[in-house]
Amino acid sequence: MDHRLREASISGDVHSLHQLLQEDRLLLNRPTYCCDNPLNVAATLGHADFAAEVLRLRPDLARELDLGGHTPLHLAAANGHAVVAKVLLGNSSAGVPGHELCLLRDMDWLTPIHAAALKGRTDVLRELVVGACPESVHATTGRGETALHLAVRSSSFEAVEFLVETVAAAAELLNSKDDKGNTALHLAVARRQLQTMKFMLSKPSVDVNSVNRRGLTPLDVLLESPNEQYGDMALGETIRAAGGKTAAELKLPPPAAVLLPRASRHQKPRVKHDEYRDTPGTLMVVATLIATITFQAALNPPGGFIPDDGKSHSSVSKVAAAAAAAADDQRPGKVVLGKELKYFLMFDVFGLFASLSIILLLICVSPRRKRMMGFLTWIMWAAVLSTALAFQCAVVQIYKSNAVVGLLSYAWSGILCVASVWIFFRFKVFLLKRVGWWKGRRHRHAGCGSLLVVKRIGVVAALLLATGATVVLIFIFLALNVGTAPASFT
């Protein structure tokens, strides 16, 4: 906009406007790329005569928006310039009637009546509601709020009183709800606006027990956050006197029936334990513990080592010591039980390497994504199972002749068999979900086309390997107990 025209708009000098137009008749017709036309400036500052002259020359400027998406009527309403608003609403030339301007929205989805209510501009509300556009009082914002909601938010009792007393459909306005189900009375109670609340309760058409989407009546809102500093006892007595009750007293349905959509049949109501189990901190602690146990067990094997004098310092039985002495290799430093601990060593080393791998990945990669945490959890399962197997292998070789140990070994083998089958089943479900073969639902990451075919081939191969590994583990469980249980318990 020309700087001279801008100065004339700021001062509201109509004579200067005419002089500028004599020099350049197209001055008002030139586009203003900064969205700051002379009518917006005049409406903001309240220059009614200047605005009327600009409207006479360029009536279409009444619909132009500024940088905030506001029309001149928005600016006049927010700043309380009722005379300018009347000028704008009286402009009906060039196809821009006043009632159409009342319904135009800015970038925040507010109409001019919303802008006036937010600022408590009662004079402008009168021009809008009584004059050009009575229907604009029912317009709602993007959050479902009416002008009455906004007047309560602005703590403007005069605006609230004017809207309720002036609008013909006052009952509809009083009981209108926003997107959260709150009426204007809910907001007045929440903000402890005693005068506004008493005024609304004096109207017989107000619904004093209206329930919002949280299942709360106005009295519930008051009791939810009590504060005697604002005289909550007096507020509660006022609501009670008007017939207000709590949702419990009205025997209304619980809030979940109002708020929550119906749960899908695939949703599980229980709390997911993965949220507190599969965390980096938890995995680090468990992996460190397993690594410590397996490391110590590898350096101090069951039965001990053959000392320099050929005698063992361990608590191994005499039968095991004699068997070690009869072996071909009796050099000092050799393990007393020797080859009998091959399964123990295999599972112990596997548990050690698995736990160390988890620690290394947690330190170097610092995984946060759910996929990575799921992968580490499967490694943790393998490490725990390997540690349990290593313990059983050692105990069975040391206490072969003990009846109690033999029976407990059978029981422990059964537990490990069940655990192996359960882990295999979980692993199978995990893989089948990845390729859309579980319960007829395709996983969102399954993919399509050739990629899906490759994934399914890999899943089949992984399932075959997992099946073989499970069978081998069960066979090892049974083989470890051969000859461990005595004929009788005595």
From TrEMBL:
Topology relative to the lipid bilayer, per the entry, is:
Multi-pass membrane protein
Record domain PGG: where: 275-395
Q: Name one GO cellular component term.
A: plasma membrane
Subcellular location(s) per record: Membrane
Annotated TM spans: 343-363, 375-399, 411-432, 453-480
Concerning InterPro entries, the annotation shows: Ankyrin_rpt, Ankyrin_rpt-contain_sf, PGG_dom
Which parts of the chain are ANK repeats? 68-89, 143-165, 180-213
Q: Which UniProt keywords apply?
A: ANK repeat, Membrane, Repeat, Transmembrane, Transmembrane helix
Renumbered to this chain, the signal peptide range is: none
Q: Does the entry feature the keyword Repeat, yes or no?
A: yes
The molecule here is called Ankyrin repeat-containing protein-like
Organism classification: Eukaryota, Viridiplantae, Streptophyta, Embryophyta, Tracheophyta
